[in-house]
Write a structure and sequence with these properties.
Blueprint lengths: L9 H11 L4 E4 L1 E2 L2 E2 H11 L4 E5 L5 H7 L3 E4 L4 H17 L1
Parallel strand pairs: 1-4, 4-5
Antiparallel strand pairs: 2-3
Length: 96
Amino acid sequence: MDVAGTHDRIQGVLERIEAVKPDVIILDMRLPDGDGITLLQKIKSSFDIPVIMLTMYEEHKERAARAGAFAYLVKGEGLDRLYQLIRKATESFVNS
């Protein structure tokens, strides 16, 4: 597993996705210049890539699901759970 890039600004994330075409995106709910749900919607409207949302708050789970998140992880659930979700997302992307 390789990290293809990181960015904390909405436009930078979109540009990086376009350049790299990652297999999976891990996206935080909070960004300095916007909301992760807004960025998730932009990603889903332009790219067929599974997005795993990260947050500190369980209550964002339903919003993320409605916006098209592949999965949702509350920070603190652990790296094993994150790796498991990445594997599932990768498998679903390859098999679709």
